[in-house]
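Quarterly update, task 2.4: zinc ion-bound model.
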Amino acid sequence: MSHIESPDSITLIRPDDWHLHLRDGAAMASVLPHSARQFARAIVMPNLKPPVTTTALASAYRDRILAALPASMQFEPLMTLYLTDNTDPDEIRRAKDTGFIHAVKLYPAGATTNSAAGVTDLRKCYKTLEVMQEVDMPLLVHGEVTDHDIDLFDREAVFIERVMRPLRRDFPELKIVFEHITTRDAAQYVAEAEGPIAATITAHHLLHNRNAIFKGGINPHYYCLPVLKREEHRLALVTAATSGDERFFLGTDSAPHAVHTKEASCGCAGCYTALHAMELYAAAFDEAGALDKLEAFASLNGPNFYDLPVNTGTITLKRETWTVPPTVPMGEQELVPLHGGEQIGWKML
Ligand code: DOR
Ligand code: ZN
């Protein structure tokens, strides 16, 4: 049980991040300690170049992550495979046997960063999905259609009708995480659906609506995919996250991009929140008057869904104003964290 010592301090079971981009090489070595300070474990996204499509690639990537982890830190990377039109069903069995691959990620081809090798038509994956359902391997879904005639802001809602409903009809026992949901439609769909489905919610989608991208000019550090939505959708996400419903849990989708690739004529999608994720979530839950619901969302519901033990140990967050650094190193380059250079009202001790 979380302990709210006063309105200004809260202690919770050590949380996990159920959706994280760590990248690779020197960039990964720079960002990894941020996540390891905040979280005991993270589901590590496979959208590297080239993507992590096999057990062998996931194993090698895991070794690189563990080698880059400072000796003083404890952190368990929970690995994933990148689903393609050609993923061999036997690859799923091999992945399951490792014990360290916990899910398979569906990127619709062209939906986001490094998704070119993603799935063009889910029907091509049905044999693989059958094995996933059989061996209890969760499917993590980037839930956006990519049709050029569908408005960017409608891509998630249309995905529910065109892809998610048929998928769940055909694989009713397949565990599915609807990743980084951004709409009232998705929150409602997950809350009301029958069977093993859950959703992750980012801190930035709880804190901001789409005005943030355009306030006073173009603000590339608020550009992510799925893109921020209207205020009514933000409010629905806050309601879902703070409801206590165990289907909703924390996934930062922290996505490091070097500053010059964000502040560009065609900037990359992604918000960097690994540095201060729990502080941002605490601010969102506090604003909703629901700090008592943060522990379930951050530390209990995820392990419950993934059939993993709840962490031991705790973290403490204090109401304290501090300034987020304007930039942090990313390999040889720098990145701008969300709210870089601004003050935020919660601090992790
Ligand atoms: O904003 C995003 N950035 N959304 C994604 O789906 C991918 C991510 C990235 O890898 O940069
Ligand atoms: Zn992501």
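Highlight for this quarter: The CA atoms of residues 123 and 238 lie 34 Å apart.
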